[in-house]
Prior knowledge:
This protein has 11 helices and 5 strands; from the N terminus they run H-H-H-H-E-E-H-E-H-H-H-H-H-E-E-H. It has helices spanning 2-26, 42-63, 66-93, 95-99, 125-140, 156-171, 176-184, 192-201, 206-212, 216-231, 253-265; strands at residues 105-108, 114-120, 144-150, 239-242, 245-248. The chain has a 5-stranded mixed β-sheet, sandwiched between helices. Helix 1 crosses helix 3 (66-93).
Amino acid sequence: xxxxxxxxxxxxxxxxxxxxxxxxxxxPQTARAGTAQPVETAAADTKIDRTEVEGIIRDYLLKNxxxxxxxxxxxxxxxxxxxxxxxxxxxxNAKDQIFNSSFDGVVGNPNGKxxxxxxxxxxxxxxxxxxxxxxxxxxxxxxxRFVLKEFPILGPDSQKASVxxxxxxxxxxxxxxxxxxxxxxxxGRATEAAAIKVALSLGADEAxxxxxxxxxxxxxxxxxxxxLANKLAITGTPSYVVGNxxxxxxxxxxxxxxxxxxxxxxx
Length: 267
């Protein structure tokens, strides 16, 4: 945050200086309006004027540092609004892929009025803690449809565990919620072996499961999810799509509940 603020502050100072310098350079005699000056001395006068402008800018910023914070806040607000508008376009154009992919597990009410989509990684510590939010929200809201979108970004173990998870979902979608809770809520690192162990405990046939893991459509679906996350500027887990809004991070049950109510109101 401090680095971002420093960069923003530097940018503001540079912008002000460039604006002032541009004015002086375009008007080399402005500081002495009405005074005739030889053409050959114009460059020297401009250099002096620039030094004076630097001093003015420096003094002003030292006396009014809050201006830099105001500009930084305005810049951040502008960027957030631009990102929000961009998200609206992506969500509109990729609606089915976000909310209705056949590779995504669904918990809660499959026919619920409002849908929340979670991008998660089985080895994400924040996702492990956020699982309680999902359970509480789906229990308290009978109209909530909670979509679980595999987004393995924490290394090969996560990727292999997701392949097992997606294969299990294709074989036994009715038990996917149990699988998800057991693997994400379990102790230790999620690996291919750990995921297979959970799948077998829920009745999957190992030979059939391993064969389903070879299905090329699984990796194709993961590639589409990576591309979708990139378009939505999602770089970490958990991240959510609620209605027309992208929510970053494990913000807690109360914040998600507010987002869900806002999505309902917009229906």
